[in-house]
Here is the input.
Amino acid sequence: MLTLLTVGMRMGIGPFFLPMVEDLGFSRSLLSGIIAIGMLCYGLGMPIAGYLVSKHGTRPVLLLGNAVVVAASIWTVYARDPISFLLAFGILLSIGLALASPVTLTPVLARWFIRRRGMALFFLSTGSMAGIAVMTPLLNVAIEAAGWQATMLGFAAVYTLFTVPMALLVIRDDAPAHGDRTREEVAALPAGKRSLAESLKLREALRTSPFWKITLGLFACGFSMNLLGTHGVPMLMDHGFDATTSSLGIGLIGLVAIFSTLVLGRISDIVPRKKLLAAIYFVRGLGFFALLVVGAHWELYTAAAIGGIVWAGSIALSSALLADIYGVRLVGVLYGCAYLGHQVGAMISSWLGGWAYEAFGTHWVAFGSAGVVLLMAAVIALLLPPKEFTLMARPAAA
Here is the structure.
């Protein structure tokens, strides 16, 4: 539920886009630039969130993020000039949402779930995809009924009602030493494997190629996800669909992704994760080209449904691979650093989606680029090492 709200607001702001342009008098390029900077700040907040969680625990970070989100939402409503809007909506809100992002919650899940880590992190991604499925059409309805300012304040109120009880009553960092492993699995673990994972240094992990391959894949993920979240609804409306159909089409992607995680989560604990990640990037890349050419309602919904099957997996698999390769102790910081690549891609696509349409009068530049980048990410994913390759190779490298 928490990731539904945070990711749904940051990645599914398409319904806000045109109302903000009309009300504030901003151009598409200007608002796209503000959103792009916000996406970068969202990414920069990820390593900070991972570091704060490792030092102070999950609960205080969630409460701090909630306070920042509430303050930023109130400021956004009253901001009228570009600078104030950038500071409130672009920067402060992004940092607040980053403090309650999947990066903040991944370490606690990775501690509690080892044997079923892939499934657990896929369920975390379900919240992200539910954010697109639920928040996009819901925000569209709320904005049409009450305006974008009231919708922003309503979001802050609902967010607080979920975050504070969750932080105080649900989150527990004190997981068992071996998570959900059975006694037989713990007894069979080589002793050297456990000590090596604990001794791995952050600077060593950052210099290895698997980290950068995962980061490049997340760049493609962020580029495509945020392009669709920010410019998907305007793109479909420019292609002749009405606002409701466009929002439902984008929301259907997240809706299907919720149910696909039930299957993909189980598969990720059985088949090689890098092959599954490559397949997800490949199908998603083809889906972006499909969205550009759909003309009928059934074509839009079909493309959205197929794309939704593979929409949720890349972030979950990337975080699971990081935990597999580098150990649980560093997963929060490493995931935060790798997720920065996700948000760099999100920043570029936020700007490109608005600028390219105004410059060339077509969405093919931005959405076609997303398709190409995703196909490249599929190839890169296949080059990732087998599970725990880096940990096993480290003594020889030293």
In short: The two ends are 43 Å apart (CA to CA).
